[in-house]
Structure formats: structure tokens, C-alpha cells
Amino acid sequence: MMEILSGVILGSFFSWLFTHIYYKKSSAKIPDWAKPIVEKLPQSEPTEQELLQLFQEALNSRSAIPDPVLGHVACPECFSPSPDFNQTLYGDDSHTVVIKTCPQCGWSEHAEV
User: Does the pLDDT of residue 74 top 80, yes or no?
Assistant: First the structure.
């Protein structure tokens, strides 16, 4: 009888634990630049064309601003908006290297311009 009771208690605990972890992961915070796009999403799953149209509208209205060098709208790691990126320039007369760094998570990428 104790084995059954302990099995029920342990099963309930692990069920709660998995549900809690899944809930935490599914309730991620939406970045500010993405809120206008998410609010316009239809109730059913949007098509690729609808998503592209929503993103193009966000670009046109300047609510999503891509980085002029890298083209990112946000950091690929922490989703900080691209206007927050730090920029470092290196180079000479013929080559310039731009390094963009996210101040939130430290992600960086470079491009030769």
C-alpha cells in the first residue's frame, strides 16, 4: 500500500514539475519590436505570405528597424533590438570591418564593408 501511495505522490510531483517547466518556456516575453507584428497575427496559423506581409508592414512603419550593416532586426541570441547594438570599426583605405555587438548578451558579428 505504501508503494502505491509513494508512486502516486512521486508521479504527481513529476507531472507538476514537467508542467511547470513547460509553462515557463512557453510564456517567453515578446520583444518590443515584435509586439505590433504579433498583435496582427490571425487566430489561425498564418501562411508564409501573411507573415512576410506583416513583417514588411512593420519595416515600412519603422516599428522594426534592421541594422544597416548586418540586416538583423534583433539579436539572434536575446532578441534585443538592432538599434541597441554597439559598433566598432577597423580598417584601412581599402577595407573596413564593422563589428556589431549586443550589449545585453555579448553576441557579436562582423562584416566587411
Answer: yes
Phi, psi (deg, nearest 5) at residue 102: -80, 125
| 11 and 66 share one domain | no
Question: Coil, strand, or helix at residue 39?
Answer: helix
Asked whether 85 and 52 are in contact (CB, 8 A), the reply is no
β-bridge mates for residue 99, sequence order: 88, 110
CA distance 37 to 57: 9
Domain count, the chain: 2
Write phi, then psi, for 39 (nearest 5 degrees): -65, -25
Q: Is the entire prediction scored with pTM above 0.90?
A: no
In this structure, are 6 and 50 located in the same domain?
no
Co-location of 9 and 40 in the same domain: no
Task: Give 5's pLDDT tier (boundaries 50, 70, 90).
Answer: confident
- Confidence class of residue 25 from pLDDT cuts 50, 70 and 90? low
Side-chain half-sphere exposure of 24, counting CA atoms within 13 A: 6
